[in-house]
């Protein structure tokens, strides 16, 4: 067969390939394998190229990461996009164990109407990073990469994915608005430092729903400058619990208003539901309208805490009271078992006592050698109703006995 004949024989195949690519683009699906991605190889550029074309589409589009394991370097997928866009991850995107620089494995920013979905896994391969992490020892420290960062994402949903062994926070939300996290799985060992499950700041209308988090730090941490945060049907453990704060560390912080935590279960965590602020805080602002309801505790140390003397590793001046004003807080229908005798501890600021604290229907038992569960309080006069086990605010909190290492 001559060269011309061979070329003519290839024409149907070439037309089929072009037709398939056109069909994918026409259907709005941008498969990273069409952009050169291959399993067990680095797909950083292929993902960036697929995102760029999808983001420029005038009609709704989908970037597909099919089943398989792929290596991913630090990636930043930016908007704004011309229409709603989905990143569908069915495979595993795996960080390099030695990559301890950069913001995160995947940073998504300035996107409206984003869907991140799929049964896939973001694997931070965090062990090498945890060995270098000293942020649990120092107030100022070098930050390691997170698995997922969402900056300025609006009207969007993240669902069904798994975040595994992040070197730092698993998921960080900055300046999000109307953002939902649903049916996520977040996993790291109990001794992995600073691996908060989901952390948020400067955000509004964030919903965390139907999610299982097992990690080495706070399962969920609601930082400063947040409004209207809802956390529901979350299972947490191991980890440090569900926290608002820590508050008051930086001068740029602003108020926290409207946090609801309900229908959650905490198992074997070092704290339960907690509000924490630094003494000698860098700024003064209110933290209010915070409600914890229908919470189940199983072998949880410190199930209920307000801690305005939060000072991990003695990185602050305990003698100067916190300037954060906590008010309009409720703890209702919280039940289960405590692994320490002090099941309820409310330690508020000497200079800004807590106001409007309501406690109703608490049933927490402790079966250790130190006797039945007790509560301790300072600088707060809560309104109490319903069941009280232990008796609420039966005695003052001893000085400087609040948890200070996480």
TrEMBL record:
The active site is at residue 240. SMART domains: PbH1. Transmembrane segments: none annotated. It is found in: Secreted, Cell wall. SUPFAM superfamilies: Pectin lyase-like. Residues 396-406 have a biased composition (Pro residues). Residues 382-406 are annotated as: Disordered. Residues 1-23 form the signal peptide. Belongs to the glycosyl hydrolase 28 family. This is Exopolygalacturonase-like. It comes from Cucurbita moschata (Winter crookneck squash). The lineage of its organism: Eukaryota, Viridiplantae, Streptophyta, Embryophyta, Tracheophyta.
